[in-house]
Write a structure and sequence with these properties.
Elements (H helix, E strand, L loop, with lengths): L1 E3 L6 H9 L5 H8 L14 E3 L20
Antiparallel strand pairs: 1-2
Helix pairs in contact: 1-2
C-alpha cells in the first residue's frame, strides 16, 4: 500500500495513522522504505510504502523481564 506523507510526519506516525498500530508494522515499513531511515521528518508528499495489513498476520514476540524474584 502506498501513501503520501503529510506535514511533520515521521514513519511511526504514518504507520499508526493508516494501520491502527505500529507494533510489528513499523519494522516491516522500515524494510520497505530504507531511503527514509535517515530522515527524522519525512517531506510532505513523499511516497511511503506500507505493509498490507490483510496479507498475513503480524506476530510480535514479547520478552518478559522479571524484575523481582
Amino acid at each position: 500500500m502506498k501513501v503520501l506523507a503529510q506535514q511533520n510526519d515521521n514513519l511511526d506516525a504514518i504507520v499508526y495513522r493508516h494501520l491502527g498500530k505500529s507494533q510489528g508494522y513499523l519494522e516491516i515499513a522500515c524494510e520497505l522504505n530504507p531511503h527514509l531511515m535517515h530522515l527524522p521528518i519525512i517531506p510532505i508528499g513523499t511516497e511511503v510504502n506500507l505493509p498490507d495489513p490483510n496479507a498475513e498476520k503480524i506476530s510480535v514476540a514479547q520478552d518478559t523481564l522479571q524484575l523481582w524474584s
